[in-house]
## 1
Amino acid sequence: MPATNSNARLEARISTDLHSMLKRAAELQGRTMTDFVVAAVQDAAQRAIEQAEIIRLSMGDQECFAQALLSPPQPAPALERAFARHRKLLRVE
């Protein structure tokens, strides 16, 4: 199946001052206003997604996390009982 190159349209009402600012910024970078706005919106969207989805840890926290993965603590008695009940419930006879 051939790939389709579809486009969507985005419209926004902005103040004349913001329009002038965007136009000036685009001209300074030698871009069209559309290209400038699309690039800026794409960068902002990527940053927002990264902030929501990527967990950043300090070096100490990274070491603590790695140590917990390498040497996990023994399960508490309540967790052991929960595992036993789970195994019992899943037993198909």
## 2
Amino acid sequence: MRIGDAAAAAGTTPRALRFYEQRGLMPPPARTAAGQREYAPGDVARLRLIRRLLAQGLTVEDLRECADRLHVLLEAAHPPCAAGGIVDRRVAALDAEISRLTRLRDALAGPASP
């Protein structure tokens, strides 16, 4: 299938799909004789997985670290969220950001009235 069809099937845009390819999250696609990208159902499944992991709070950089192992998540009967170390680091970063934002909110709110 062509890039527009693959992107639509995964709930994204052709521009996002090209971005994921440029960042190494998607392997280079097969090409037609005319040079157009051709995607297989497995490519669409990988793209859906990438979108799901990004929606769960991982970043493109997080996924770049394990891009060569994303196929394992696709092949698992009950895929885990992602590689443990990456998830642990992301959770720690989110906890730190929540703490920072809580302090900021408390500072802006000032002393609580009784």
